């Protein structure tokens, strides 16, 4: 199994369609093509479209396949947490000069983060520091 550092180095950004499939797959943990299509929100993409996206995700190293005769069960190779961590770091690096405090300040200015949220964040940071 890859170490988290190795995984982080190989994670690439997902397109919106790829991310939609991955969100569903992370939720289901493993699924056949039909299960994935059924679990997607309306308007549902065509089954062939989902199959194509799964092929791309497999080539990118995000999805693994178990073969059962002529059917395939898909499962995530990268955890949602690992992808989220890398994505957040890339957003902060690309838009906030690598500063998480700049990102939090932006969220406060845009009214996306309340005083209660900040207090909860501060409590979490204090607990982690102990």
Topology (elements, then pairings):
Elements: H1 4-10, H2 16-28, E1 31-32, H3 33-39, H4 47-59, E2 63-68, E3 71-76, H5 80-95, H6 100-109, H7 115-129
Antiparallel strand pairs: 1-3, 2-3
Helix pairs in contact: 2-4
What's a concise summary of this model?
It is built from 7 helices and 3 strands; from the N terminus they run H-H-E-H-H-E-E-H-H-H. It has 130 residues and is mostly helical.
Give an overview of the whole structure:
- 12% of the residues are buried.
- The chain has seven helices and three strands; from the N terminus they run ααβααββααα.
- With 130 residues, it is mainly α.
Q: What is the molecular shape?
A: elongated
Secondary structure: helix percent: 55-70%
Question: Low-confidence runs (pLDDT<50, min 5 residues)?
Answer: 1-9
Number of helices: 7
How many strands, what sense, and barrel or not for the largest sheet?
Answer: 3 strands, antiparallel
Q: Mean of the pLDDT scores?
A: 87
At the first level of CATH, the class of the largest domain is Mainly Alpha
- How many DSSP-defined strands? 3
Distance between the termini: 31 Å
Overall structural class, as computed from helix and strand content, comes to mainly alpha
Which key terms come to mind for this protein?
mainly alpha; Arc Repressor Mutant, subunit A; three-stranded antiparallel β-sheet; 7 helices; 3 strands; 62% helix
